[in-house]
Write a structure and sequence with these properties.
With 93 residues, the chain is mainly α. 67% of the residues lie in helices and 0% in strands. The N and C termini lie close together (11 Å).
Length: 93
């Protein structure tokens, strides 16, 4: 039985991203899941096809909303994705 995604760090972002990606909704979360798609698939998650150029698109969206703070927010989101991947790998093994 797969682990409850929401119980893992960053699981809220990944779950929302999977939902949005499945519905082809461009959101911060769906772009983040697109960034991590290959690793998430490798870990055994069913991930819909990702969006093109997700790194730049996510940074652009953050830059529009947060200006100079976009870099820090982008890095924080990527760190949460990596935390999720690591936790999922531990729980699923």
């Amino acid at each position: 039985m797969p682990p409850d995604l929401l119980a893992l760090p960053g699981g809220d972002l990944v779950e929302a991203g999977l939902h949005d990606l499945g519905n082809r909704v461009v959101s911060d979360e769906s772009l983040l899941v697109s960034i991590g798609r290959s690793r998430l698939v490798q870990l055994g998650l069913a991930v819909p096809a990702g969006f093109e150029d997700p790194e730049h698109r996510l940074y652009g969206r953050l830059s529009e909303r947060f200006g100079d703070a976009a870099h820090g927010r982008y890095n924080a989101l990527v760190r949460r994705l990596v935390s999720f991947e690591r936790a999922f790998a531990c729980v699923d093994s």
